[in-house]
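User: Teach me something about this protein's shape.
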Amino acid sequence: MGAIYRREMGAFFTSGVGYVFLSVFTLLSGIFFYFGVIGSGRADISPMFSSMFLVVLFLIPILTMKLFSEEKKNRTDQGLLTAPVSLWSIVLGKYFAALTLFIIAESVVFIYSLFIAIFGEVMWPSLLGNYAAMLFLGAAFIAIGVFISSLTENQMAAAVASMLALFLLYLLDSLAASINVNSGSELVQKCLGFVQNAMYSISFLSRYNGFTQGVFDLSSIVFFVSTAFLFNFFTVRVLEKRRWS
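Assistant: First, the predicted structure itself:
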C-alpha cells in the first residue's frame, strides 16, 4: 500500500491535478472566509465551513476522476491487478493519497485562524468541530469518487458522474421535503413516510450542517466513516471482478 500511496501522491503533482485542486480550494475558501467571517466582523468560522459543502462537492470529483479510470484507459490496470499485492492495498493506497491531499487543502483553515485572532479570540472548539466535519465529509465523498472512477476508463465521465452523484446526495433533504406523506391511502402514506425518513437519515447535508451549528454528533461520524468503508469495499469488488474476467 505504501508504494501505491507514494506513487499516487507523486502523480497528483506531476499531472498538475494536485496544484489545481489546492489552488482552487484555497481561493474559494479564502473568498468564503473573507465574506463570511472577516467581512461580517465575526470570530466564528462556521459560516465559511457551511458554504464549503458545495465547493467540496464539485472539487473532489476532480481529485478522484483519474485514480482508476486512467489505469484502465492506459491498460496499466492489469499489471496492477496481477501484482503481488492485495486489492485492498491498491484501493486504500489510492484512497489515502487523495485523502491526504484533501487534508492538506483543508488545513489552510489554521492559517485563517491567525487572521481571526486579530479580531478576537479563536473559538477553538467550533473550529476543530467544523474541521473534523469537513474531514469526515471529504473522506466519504472521496470513497464515492474512487468507486465511480473504477467503473469507467473516461476521466471526464468519472468526474461528471461523481459530481452528479454527490449533487444528488446534496439534494436529498429537498427531495425528502417535497414528498407529500399525507396523500393517498393509509398504506401509501406509510410507504411515503418510510421513504422520507430514510432519505432524511442518509442526508449528508443535515449531518454536516449539524457540526457547523456546534452539534457534535457521534452517529454522524459513524455514518461518514461507514460510507467511506462501504464504497471502498464496492471498489474492491469491482477490481476483483475485473481481475478474474
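Now, about its shape. The mean pLDDT is 85. The chain is about 80% helix and 0% strand. If you'd like, I can walk through any region in more detail.
User: That's plenty for now, thanks!
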